[in-house]
Design brief:
It contains ten helices and twelve strands. It has about 350 residues and is of the alpha/beta class. About 45% of the residues are buried.
Length: about 350
């Protein structure tokens, strides 16, 4: 049994070929797709965060809106780039959104991927400390965020406050109990997966990973997941961790599917995501359900994970994206024992 959700990058473009032509379209359609996914029986609605781009950016207003319109589905990110974040303000936003959603947030955070502008986090007022890299800064921000989410007081109260304070040191409010256990780290390497396990974060592994062995993505991811679980056990955490992988999966069950994705099945690709960093990009799975079931049964990383995030082509519109999700839930998941 697996939890199955969708992952949207929230692209928008004014092109007449797009069903998502504005930022407003991207946001409102994201809410409607989450509602539709819940009605179809999907388990999660996840959103990517990119800055300086015609994509979804600030996630918490969207997460809160989805939380207010749904009642069961998990609501998450994959991922928030921590180079851009004020950890304390983020803890306030996350606490508020989680309380609105009734404790359904599943926040994926990470160093992030290469952005649209050079060192974009500098425009947000952040820069690495002396001797730090931007990745170090992201991990530092993440650790502060995790500490604040514990809900322990740390701030000295004003002796003459405008409103009465509870006794002792003060914490960031609103605090949402349990959210600390629902933070995920989007890891591109085995080493950062181990680091995340030691800190008690769940693991997200996407359709892209730094190439560490030359093996296909699913094999490298499976090794990463096993390293994560070994580190989790060694750290002595008492709860079971969660692990998600993302995949592009399109069952071809109509002529429209065949027109869009009939030639989309592919092999993994290797390339450079940034200078000096070779990565492996995962293939798309697009075929008739019977063939898809056979292909996906060989995916070692999906077998290792408890959560599968389906990347959806959001610019094709809410109805078509809901159709893609439904086709996986109806024709593929039961045959593989995911349902």
């Amino acid at each position: 049994m697996k939890k199955i959700g969708f992952l949207s990058f929230g692209h928008w473009t004014p092109s007449p070929q797009s069903q998502t032509r504005s930022a407003s379209d991207a946001l409102l359609q994201s809410i409607e797709l989450a509602v539709a996914a819940e009605e179809l029986g999907a388990d999660g609605a996840y959103f990517r965060v990119h800055h300086f781009a015609r994509q979804l950016a600030s996630p918490f207003p969207l997460l809160a809106a989805v939380g207010a319109r749904t009642s069961r589905i998990e609501i998450g990110t994959a991922v928030i780039d921590m180079r851009y974040e004020n950890p304390l303000y983020m803890a306030e936003d996350a606490g508020a959104a989680d309380l609105i959603a009734g404790g359904r947030l599943q926040l994926g955070i990470s160093r992030g991927s290469p952005e649209q502008v050079i060192d974009g986090w500098r425009y947000f007022g952040y820069q690495p400390a002396e001797g730090e890299t931007d990745a170090d800064m992201a991990r530092r921000h993440a650790q502060v965020f995790l500490e604040v989410l514990k809900g322990e007081g740390f701030a000295q109260p004003n002796p003459q406050p405008m409103f009465p304070n509870p006794p002792g040191l003060l914490r960031v409010e609103p605090h949402s109990p349990g959210l600390r256990d629902r933070i995920w780290w989007g890891s591109a390497t085995n080493a950062t997966a181990v680091w995340a396990a030691k800190l008690g974060m769940n693991l997200q592994s996407s359709t892209l990973k730094f190439d560490e062995s030359g093996q296909p993505l699913h094999i490298q991811q499976a090794e990463q997941i096993r390293a994560f679980r070994d580190a989790w056990k060694e750290a002595g955490h008492t709860r079971e961790p969660r692990v998600s992988v993302s995949r592009s999966i399109f069952p071809i069950v109509s002529d429209l599917d065949r027109m869009y994705f009939g030639r989309d099945s592919s092999e993994d690709q290797f390339g450079y995501i940034e200078p000096g960093t070779r990565a492996v990009f995962g293939r798309s799975y697009a075929a008739e359900p019977e063939k898809l079931v056979k292909e996906l049964a060989k995916d070692e990383a999906i077998a290792e994970a408890d959560t599968l995030l389906l990347t959806i082509p959001n610019q094709l519109g809410v109805d078509y994206c809901a159709h893609c999700i439904e086709a996986v839930l109806k024709y593929v998941a039961p045959e593989l024992g995911w349902r």
